[in-house]
Amino acid sequence: MAALITLAPQLVLLLALLAVALLMRRTVGRRRLERIIFESDTPAGKQFDLLLLVVIVLSVVAVALESEPSLQSRHQAVFTPLEYGFSGLFSLEYLLRLLCSEHPWRYARSYFGIIDLLSSIPPLLGLGAIGGKYFTVIRILRLMRVFRILKLGLYIREAERLKQALLASRRKILIFLLMMINLVVIIGALMYVIEGEPGGFVSIPTGIYWAIVTITTVGYGDVAPVTPLGRVAASAVMLMGYSIIAVPTGIVTAELGRTGNPSGIPSGNPPSEASRAVAQRCRACGERQHLSGASYCHRCGAALLDPPGDQPGDQATGSRAMA
Question: What distance, in Å, lies between the first and last C-alpha atoms of the chain?
């Protein structure tokens, strides 16, 4: 009951925003509202995207400044109304997207739909509640919406390539991680035996922590060997770290190259004679050399529709040969 009383103002504001969204849909029209919000090919759509971009940047700046204790204590009376205003605007926009979308359920389940939901309504409900400051992290998600406004979704194809490369190399990376776990456990136990408590290695887990920090070339310096033998071992671990750290990078890079070039032909080099076939003659440009199984001419892009031997040029050649 106490929680409902605490959330009562936010729930009332959310219901008021829903009423405003329904009124705007009825006044403007669903199709026109959908084109303004989801598209940017109209002056109204471009202005909406620009305004939304400005509001997102201002809200993220406000959240970052509010996390500073000195500013929060002095200007809390400014930050609270600002966050109510930003959360209200984003909640209204999310409700409008749901109401004007032709497929609202599909939008709600999409990547950007989930980002819109998490960055609007939960922060609004969390304002003034106990633990509401933890919604700050969720509010930072608003910055992810810049990708849609700036049409950076065109780079999703490249992100998909990276995802495929990571999935293709997951077994190799898993084996590498298991090898690294065994290695740091052995090194940590060895340093515990060599250094012991005088060097700060009070336990094997402490030695494992030092091994991870050292082999990844981070080197915090809170634990360091003091004996000559320990320093020699530490030097060997540091040098080992430089060679090991490049292994997963090479694995992913190799898989990324295969993903970007599924044909297996090195980019920038012409295909070898073994990978070429005297298959179909292009009607448009007359090119005869094409990759086996090709559907389009690699020179002019015309469709290769006829099977080998059925092209007019091939028939003419055969007639001349018979004559």
Answer: 100
What is the set of domains in the chain, with CATH numbers?
A: 2-150 (no CATH), 170-249 (1.10.287.70), 278-323 (no CATH)
**Looking at residue 295, what DSSP letter applies?**
S
What is the sign of the dihedral through the CA atoms of 137, 143, 148 and 153?
negative
Chain CA centroid to CA 240, Å? 31
Cβ count within 10 A of residue 176: 15
SS3 at position 43:
helix
Higher pLDDT pick, 239 / 147: 239
Q: What is the CA radius of gyration of the chain?
A: 31
Quote the tokens at residue 186: 């052995």
Q: CA-CA distance, 209 to 213, in Å (whole number)?
A: 6
Phi, psi of 281 (to 5 degrees): -95, 130
> Could you give the CA distance from residue 122 to residue 21 in angstroms, rounded to a whole number?
18
- How many Å apart are CA 74 and CA 197, to the nearest integer? 47
Beta carbons within 10 angstroms of residue 304's beta carbon:
20
Length of the chain: 323
State the Cα–Cα distance between residues 296 and 280, nearest whole angstrom. Answer: 10
Is 182's pLDDT higher than 90? yes
Closest by CA position to 38, among listed 123, 117, 120, 99 = 99
DSSP code of 143?
G
Q: 10 Å Cβ neighbour count for 262?
A: 8
Encoding tokens for residue 58?
């201002």
| Rounded Cα gap, residues 235 and 250, in angstroms | 24
pLDDT in tens, 17-33: 899 999 999 998 888 88
Mean confidence (pLDDT) of the chain: 77
pLDDT grade for 187, boundaries at 50, 70 and 90: very high
